[in-house]
Amino acid sequence: MATAKKKIHYAWWTLVALCIIVGLAKGALNNSAGLFIPGATKELDILTGNLTLYFSISSIITMIFLPIGGKILAKYDIRTVLITAIILQAGAFIAFGFSNSVWGWYIFSIPLAVGGVFTTVIVGPVLVNQWFKKKNGMALGIIGASGGLLGAIAQPIVGHTIANEGWRTGYISLGIAIIIIVVPTVLLLIRKSPQAIGLTPYGAELDSALGDNGMKNDSDKGVTLAIARKSSAFYSLFLFFLLITSIASFSIHIPSYIQSRGYDVGFAGNVMGAYMIGVLLGALVLGYLVDKIGSRNTVYLAMVLAIIAVLVLLFAANSKLALTLATGLFGFTVSNSVGTLAPAMTTSLFGSREYSQIYSTASLGLAIAGIIALPAYGYIFDFTGSYTPVLYVVLVLLILNIILVTYAFEGKKKLQKDGHWN
Question: Where do the TM regions start and end (predicted)?
């Protein structure tokens, strides 16, 4: 028995695999996309706005495919699905490297999005839910941080590859490298479920021991979707999702912004490495602060720090150090606002009673922002020749978000006063 207790539960090996899969798919692939835009648009004589429309197509496909993807993951062998998904997602990057017109990005954004639905959205929460009955929140936080860590390693490498070998080689080598790493990881470490290999989920025994102690009631507290959708708190949350995703969308344009200030793509890659370190630290720190000071105060702090980051980008970008630190701070605050603070705010405002329904409905704001903001920023740059107007837009959106958070929690008080929060 003593020997059995010392053995590492297989849930932790599953978590290692998820960190590699999600971290590379999100941190190395998706978050490096902006590094390729200046080189591709210049060589092929494409407007930045026209090229970045592929992000909108990708967002639309993601919206359509999400419910289908959940059913596929439940029905088919998870390893087959994940291997297919990473080949589609990373294979799209390889295809971008061979593209000679903007239509290449438009066409291959479809497999990019379909594969990404599994590797960056679904697989983490699904497998953590299957393997962890205890410390599942921590497990999700670690997966989020892995994207920052692996992205911080990958971004400078990608930037210098583009600088030395060209954007086509950058696309192709990155796609091939991700497939070579992820496919063996899936085959060696991913299993369908604990039951499939004769185990119970991590912490399941503890859950059984505590199951009759009244803990279940807390998970049922909150507001129903029907009531939530009639409240000012819900529409404030929806708009918060919309605006924070619009703000975060600027991260794709950061490499172009840096190069528009006269720096080369190699330096842009280093700065994006700092951005990913910010994402890594923010995933850990902001999650901790939510538990300590609440989601409302944490959002206020994040928005103020993001405002400082944008002001530095506007007025101190001639300093390499200031530019690097501001970009890292932007990643620390804004990117984690989408992945950490938005879900935490949903719980704070509406509880856990019908959390998944409320969160998925409010999340339409995330998808809509992804469709609109990315190309809009590109077209603003095309027509003005500068990202300065975009940064002023981002600044205004951050201020509006502070107002929306305040209004959302006032709406929560009304729900409680009216007896709907139970």
Answer: 51-69, 81-99, 105-127, 139-158, 170-190, 233-252, 272-290, 297-317, 323-346, 358-378, 390-409
Query: Where is 196: in which H helix or E strand?
Result: none
Distance CA 57, CA 68 (A): 17
Q: Are 362 and 235 in contact (CB under 8 A)?
A: no
Give the confidence band of 361 by pLDDT, cuts at 50, 70, 90.
Answer: confident
Q: Give residue for tokens 């530095």.
A: 312
Contact 97, 108 (CB under 8 A): no
Mark which of 203, 237, 265 sits at the end of a domain: 203
pTM over 0.85: no
What pLDDT, in 10s, does the model give residues 216-225? 444 457 888 8
pLDDT tens digits for range 153-212: 888 898 889 989 999 999 999 999 999 999 999 999 888 778 888 778 877 765 555 454
Number of domains in the chain: 2
240 and 302, same structural domain?
yes
**DSSP sequence for 280-327:** HHHHHHHHHHHHHHHHHHHHHHHHHHHHHHHHHHHH-TTSHHHHHHHH
Q: Identify the residue whose tokens are 């798919």.
A: 25
The three state secondary structure string of 53-114 is HHHHHHHHHHHHHHHHHHHHHHHCCHHHHHHHHHHHHHHHHHHHHCCCCHHHHHHHHHHHHH
The two three-digit tokens of residue 203, written as one number: 């912490």
C-alpha 31/C-alpha 95 separation (Å) is 17
Q: Which amino acid is at 255?
A: P
Cβ atoms of 267 and 254 closer than 8 Å: no
Q: Assign residue 224 a region: left if phi > 0, alpha if psi is -120 to 50, beta otherwise?
A: beta
Which two tokens mark 197?
């290999």
Could you read off the pLDDT of 127-141 as tens digits, one per residue? 877 787 777 667 777
Containing domain of residue 191, as a range?
Answer: 9-203
When pLDDT is averaged across residues 7-24 and rounded to a whole number, the result is: 89
Q: What CATH number does residue 256 fall under?
A: 1.20.1250.20
| Cα–Cα–Cα angle for 241, 237, 27, rounded to 5 degrees | 25
Same structural domain, 244 and 379: yes
Model pLDDT for residues 67-97, shown as the tens digit of each residue: 787 778 778 888 999 999 999 999 999 999 9
